[in-house]
Amino acid sequence: YGNSGGRGIGASDSLLEAIDRGEQPGLFHDEFRTPLEVSNAADALIELEGTDARGLLHLAGPEKVSRFELGLAVLGAMGLEPAEVQGSIQSRSRMDHPGHEQRPANVCLDGSAARAILEVPLMDVATGLARAMR
């Protein structure tokens, strides 16, 4: 998520575009991830390039959130009032999605190894959105 510079390629961009078209997107309340704002991920990758770090490192945000919670946070960061936010998206269950059995409910990554060696902090959703919206 984050600011894609008007290119419309990020998850937050597609959510906002759908709402602008008058749609009320459904986002899963029971599918979880550890989102990281795109420019924060880029900063971390740049720092890692200059290290001798080896092995598997997950760049992940520090908090587990559902797609629905992330959508609420994105809309809140855009300045929508809580009542507007709640009416803009629908809370859906992944169980109602065709092919849900192939979709893991929890796709969270453990970023603790990366956080232990990085000076760049891996931001939570609120901090990442504040950065993306400036």
Describe this structure in words.
With 134 residues, the chain is mostly helical. It has a single domain, classed as NAD(P)-binding Rossmann-like Domain (Rossmann fold). It is built from six helices and four strands. The two termini are 14 Å apart.
List the helices and strands and how they pair.
Blueprint: H1 11-20, E1 26-28, E2 32-33, H2 38-49, E3 65-66, H3 67-77, H4 82-88, E4 90-92, H5 112-117, H6 125-132
Helix pairs in contact: 3-6
Task: Summarize the entry for a quick read.
The chain is mostly helical and 134 residues long. The protein contains six helices and four strands. The protein has a two-stranded parallel sheet with strand order 1-4.
